[in-house]
Write a structure and sequence with these properties.
The complex is a heterodimer of chains A (257) and B (257).
Chain A (H helix, E strand, L loop, with lengths): L1 H25 L5 H4 L2 H14 L3 H31 L1 H16 L5 H9 L3 H25 L3 H9 L4 H38 L5 H10 L3 H29 L12
Helix pairs in contact in A: 3-11, 4-5, 4-7, 4-9, 4-10, 6-7, 7-9, 9-10, 9-11, 10-11
Chain B lengths: L3 E10 L2 E11 L4 E5 L6 H9 L6 E6 L2 E2 L7 E4 L11 H11 L4 H14 L15 H14 L4 E5 L7 H18 L2 E6 L2 H7 L2 E5 L7 E6 L8 H4 L3 H24 L1
Parallel strand pairs in B: 3-8, 3-9, 6-7, 7-8
Antiparallel strand pairs in B: 1-2, 1-4, 4-5, 9-10
The chains are: A mainly alpha (257), B alpha/beta (257).
């Protein structure tokens, strides 16, 4: 019952916001040229999907985002494991990791465009630089927080280095990695869209940039809506995967799983 | 010849000397309890015996030979839970066999037998967080025993359990120990527990610079029931005798704390 009430409130809030926007735009309280209006935006989204003109862009952005997501996560986890298990290396590399992470990634976009061209590669590279650090820091933390008692116990029971990695370090880091996947997806999308926005020939970022170029606010908002739904769907998929793979974890809300 | 021996053993953590001048021999198949006030370095001695900690002075002899690295014949039941939260009860118990190169299938079959032995035959698929504290301890016990260690190190393993569960576990431990009489070093601050379980009780002085200050043989007949044996005159006599010695140390520990 409580869940239903919350949902109703959530839906109400959205409708109230959209209603207010629509009303203000129609009655001229805000300029429709700059703010568009929800009905126009929805119609535009509908047209994009009905005519199919959005699909190629969606496809390009998805490919860029997924590649950035996988490579970023893969290398981040690998590097996180390595540094967490080799404290000496971690000590040496620490300032460099921090320095690299301190670079605002957006300024790398032009460089990547020069290096990798206007195709998807430059966008993937940008996404990877964002996703990498999220995965890296979370894996590092996850491995570092393994209880020494659990570790000693496993070693006394005869675990070799490979066993420790497979049965202890990776599962311990997994819950951190998974909670970071949600963030990573967001970053992968940012990498892809910002890259497209700054220079490309396809993708949702390109679509938005095009609309903006001709002061088509409806197009800009429509692009944002499509992006938003896209990320929400991916987030839900990761959430479902997480629930399947982390069955061993006690539910935070309390009660038996 | 003694199975395990501490020779003039000392352990210091920086400037803090936890134990010093410890001489103690344990025969094969003997059940020895170490009692002492809190902070007297009981766990330190176990960690040294397990090879998790190197002594700063003296040495540990295992069947006459100095121990180097992890103790290969030791099983360690820690005070805290040391089982893996991301593995089911059954897989946790099977793990030591997998570490030794056995396939999961066979390891699980044997683990099932051990789960039955500790009275958990009905919850093999449960994860640790779904089990009670006593059940988790049973899983831990089965996990240590399935590896068939010749030396069993136990660090206040039942201290976190309620009194009834605790007595059940103590009886369970005695029953399992009776089967093949492993050598046991059992650390506790509970004198009743120490006497009820052991062949010999060793009293440690309050830390720092803790060392054994008294040894008492426990000539109580086996098999024992820990709840009943506490009421026998022989037990009470022993308890009084040891407590006379221990009380002074407990007072000193309190004064220091």
């Amino acid at each position: 019952m409580r869940g239903l009430r919350v949902r109703l409130w959530q839906a109400g809030l959205l409708l109230a916001f959209l209603g207010l926007w629509e009303w203000a735009s129609r009655t001229g309280r805000i300029d429709p040229f700059f703010f568009s209006k929800p009905s126009d935006i929805l119609a535009r989204v509908w047209r994009w999907f009905a005519t199919g003109e959005v699909y190629p862009h969606l496809y390009v952005t998805s490919v860029e985002m997924l590649l950035a997501f996988f490579f970023g996560t893969f290398f981040g986890v690998l590097m996180g494991l390595w540094l967490a298990l080799s404290p000496g290396v971690a000590l040496v590399l620490d300032p460099y990791v921090k320095a690299l992470n301190a670079i605002p990634r957006v300024v790398l976009a032009p460089i990547f465009t020069l290096w990798f061209g206007l195709g998807i590669l430059s966008k993937v590279a940008l996404g990877v630089t964002l996703v990498f650090f999220v995965a890296f820091f979370n894996t590092y933390q996850g491995v570092k927080e393994v209880s020494p008692v659990v570790l000693n116990n496993a070693r006394l029971l005869g675990a070799k280095r490979g066993h420790l990695l497979r049965h202890i370090y990776l599962p311990a880091a997994a819950s951190w990695i998974f909670s970071s996947l949600r963030t990573s997806i967001g970053f992968a999308v940012i990498g892809a869209v910002v890259g497209e926005y700054l220079g490309s020939a396809a993708g949702l970022g390109y679509l938005i940039a095009q609309a903006e170029g001709v002061f088509d606010t409806t197009g800009v908002f429509a692009g944002m809506v499509v992006l938003m739904v896209f990320v929400l769907v991916l987030d839900a998929l990761v959430g479902a995967l997480e629930r399947r793979l982390l069955v061993w974890r006690p539910r935070a809300e309390g009660g038996e799983a | 010849m003694s199975f395990l021996a501490f020779r003039n053993l000392g352990v210091a953590f920086g400037g803090y000397v936890a134990v010093e001048g410890v001489d103690l021999s344990v025969r094969e198949g003997e059940f020895v309890s170490l009692v002492g006030p809190t902070g007297c370095g009981k766990s330190t001695l176990l960690n040294v015996a397990a090879g998790l900690l190197s002594p700063t002075q003296g040495q540990v002899l295992l069947e006459g030979k100095p121990l180097e690295g992890l103790n290969p014949v030791a099983g360690y039941l820690f005070q805290q839970d040391a089982i893996l939260p991301w593995k089911t009860a059954l897989d946790n118990v099977a793990l030591p066999l997998v570490f030794r190169g056995m396939g999961w299938r066979e390891a699980r079959e044997r683990a099932r037998v051990w789960l039955e032995k500790v009275g958990l035959g009905r919850v093999p698929r449960h994860f640790p967080h779904q089990l009670s504290g006593g059940m988790r301890k049973r899983v831990g016990l089965a996990q240590v025993l399935i590896a068939n260690p010749r030396l069993l190190l136990m660090d206040e393993p039942f201290s976190a359990l309620d009194v009834q569960t605790r007595q059940l576990m103590e009886n369970e431990l005695l029953r399992l120990w009776q089967e093949d009489r492993k050598t046991v070093l059992f650390v506790t601050h509970d004198l009743e527990e120490a006497i009820a379980l052991a062949d010999r009780v060793v009293v440690l002085s309050a830390g720092p610079r803790s060392r054994p200050i008294g040894e008492f043989l426990v000539p109580l007949p086996r098999p024992r029931d820990v709840a009943e044996i506490r009421l026998t005159p022989e037990f009470l006599r022993l308890h009084r005798e040891i407590w006379d010695l221990l009380r002074g140390e407990v007072m000193r520990a309190h004064a220091g704390a």
